[in-house]
Fold this protein.
Amino acid sequence: MKIAIDGPAASGKSTVAREVSLRLKIPYLESGLAYRTFAYLVLQRRGSVNSVSWEDLRDLFGLVDILPRVGVTEVRVRGERIDHILGTEEVGRVASLIGTVPEFRENINRFFRRVIGKGQIVVDGRDAGTHIIPEADLKVFLTASPEERARRRMTQLEAKGVPADYQAVLKDILERDRRDRERKAYPFRPAEDAVIIDTTGRTVEDVVGEILTLVKEHETGS
Ligand code: DC
């Protein structure tokens, strides 16, 4: 079973995808973590970053390992685990810039397909259903209003003890949505055969339950 779960920034897709992976006991590939890994490496090299080109990224592929496991995507750089330090807003902003580089998208998607092989997988991201596993058995596209997504991001940041301002978080989400949607190569949009789920006002448990029902329906062919 291959499942693609896409959605915009802070739509809850990672939380939902991780839970689906745990319930079904199949590996989880959080594709955004790969974008964040390259963002982290570019930031380490350059300090501040306002634009990214393929030249900044091509040599970094050899350093990175992405390992999908049940309930977690392990990321290693030169063998060292770094997935726990990729959650900052700054890394997310640069990851979104990296998403506008077409050569990067082509190469990272090839990399993902090699990692996935023929195995079972839950993949989340922006283009899991359209480009990473277009052959997926089930494609889900999660949406939620920008305000709700900003509130969720605030809760996440507060839980981590990171001070955050609601208006700044909302502005960042809207900006990232615009960049993800308007990029020339691979603009962000749902796969034609995706099931769209609006999660505004719904709990994670409720949304996961709906997806598990869709999985069951697929398995029984109903
Ligand atoms: O899902 P996320 O917020 O961790 O992703 C960070 C950025 O990476 C996002 O703004 C756009 C980019 N990205 C992408 O372009 N395609 C993906 N499949 C995953 C992430």
